[in-house]
Design brief:
One of its GO terms (biological process) is proteolysis. It comes from Dyadobacter jiangsuensis. It contains 6 helices and 11 strands. By secondary structure, it is α+β, with helices and mostly antiparallel strands. The protein has one domain: hypothetical protein yedk fold (Alpha-Beta Complex), CATH 3.90.1680. The longest helix is centred in the C-terminal third of the chain and has 9 residues. It is globular, with a radius of gyration of 19 Å.
Length: 238
C-alpha cells in the first residue's frame, strides 16, 4: 500500500551537481547552484531543499477526494544520499538509529508530490511558498527489520531504479503507468545500512564525525533479532 510522506529524516551529503549528470535536461538550475549540502535534514525543520519537478495538474490514484489525488501531476524527485530510521530492540531503553543508502549509487532520487501556494502580501505583492511530500510503501526485508516499531512500522520510502525515477517525472503517465511505479519493490540487496550515533540530536557526535558515519553499539543483535535479552550497557565507537 502506498502512502504519502512518513520518512522525516534524509541526508544529502554528496555534491548536488551530480543531479545535472543524471538529468541533463534540467532548465532551471539556480536552485541547485545555491543549495547547501547536509548530512542530515529533518522535515520538522521545514528547510529549503532542492527537488526536480515537472509542473501540471492531475489526480492521484486511490481516493479521489484526497488532496494528494488533486495534485497527482505535481510529481517531483527528491535527491538524497540516504535516509535515516530507528530500530527498536527488546530490553534496550532507546531505539538504535540507522543510516540507509543505495549500494551502487552516489545519489538516488525519491519520488514525491509537491504543491505551490500563492498568497498576497500586505502591499498587494504576490508571494509563493512550496512544499513537498515523500511517497512511502510497505518495506522490504531490510527496512522492515530496521523500521520495526511505531504506528508506521514496516514502511520505507518508495525507492526506485534510475529508469523508474526518470519515468516518474516524464510528461505522459497513465493510471496503469503510475500503478507500476507504486508497486515496485526495491530488493533489500540493493540497499546497505549501519547504525549511527543519533539522528535528530542537535549536539555533535562525540567523535566529531558526520551523522551518517558508522557508530558501534556493544551487544547490538543482528537485524531480524529484536528480542535480545542483553541490556544496552555501553556504547563504543570506532
Amino acid at each position: 500500500m502506498l502512502r504519502r510522506q512518513l520518512c522525516y529524516d534524509i541526508s544529502l551529503h554528496s555534491d548536488i551537481e551530480l543531479t545535472k549528470e543524471v538529468f541533463p535536461k534540467i532548465k532551471d538550475k539556480r536552485i541547485i547552484q545555491d543549495s547547501p549540502v547536509y548530512d542530515h535534514i529533518s522535515s520538522f525543520a521545514f528547510p529549503e531543499y532542492p527537488v526536480i519537478a515537472r509542473q501540471g495538474t492531475e489526480r492521484v490514484l486511490g481516493d479521489t477526494r484526497s488532496y494528494a489525488h488533486r495534485i497527482r501531476q505535481n510529481r517531483c524527485l527528491i535527491p538524497v544520499t540516504g535516509t535515516y530510521e530507528h530500530r527498536a530492540i527488546q530490553g534496550w531503553a532507546k531505539k538504535v538509529p540507522y543510516y540507509i543508502w543505495p549500494k551502487d549509487r552516489k545519489m538516488q532520487f525519491l519520488p514525491g508530490l509537491f504543491q505551490i501556494i500563492e498568497t498576497t502580501g500586505p502591499a498587494g505583492e504576490k508571494r509563493q511558498s512550496a512544499s513537498f511530500g515523500m511517497l512511502t510503501r510497505t518495506a522490504n526485508e531490510l527496512m522492515a527489520n530496521i523500521h520495526n516499531d511505531g504506528e508506521f512500522r514496516h514502511r520505507m520510502p518508495l525507492h526506485l531504479t534510475p529508469e523508474l525515477e526518470s519515468f516518474w517525472v516524464s510528461e505522459h503517465l497513465t493510471d496503469d503507468d503510475l500503478q507500476v511505479v507504486f508497486d515496485y519493490m526495491l530488493p533489500a540487496e540493493a540497499l546497505d545500512c549501519h547504525p549511527v550515533f543519533s539522528i535528530r540530536d542537535k549536539k555533535p557526535r562525540p567523535d566529531g564525525k558526520p551523522k551518517f558515519k558508522f557508530w558501534r553499539y556493544e551487544n547490538l543483535p543482528p537485524l531480524g533479532d529484536d528480542k535480545s535479552s542483553e541490556s544496552q550497557l555501553s556504547i563504543f565507537n570506532i
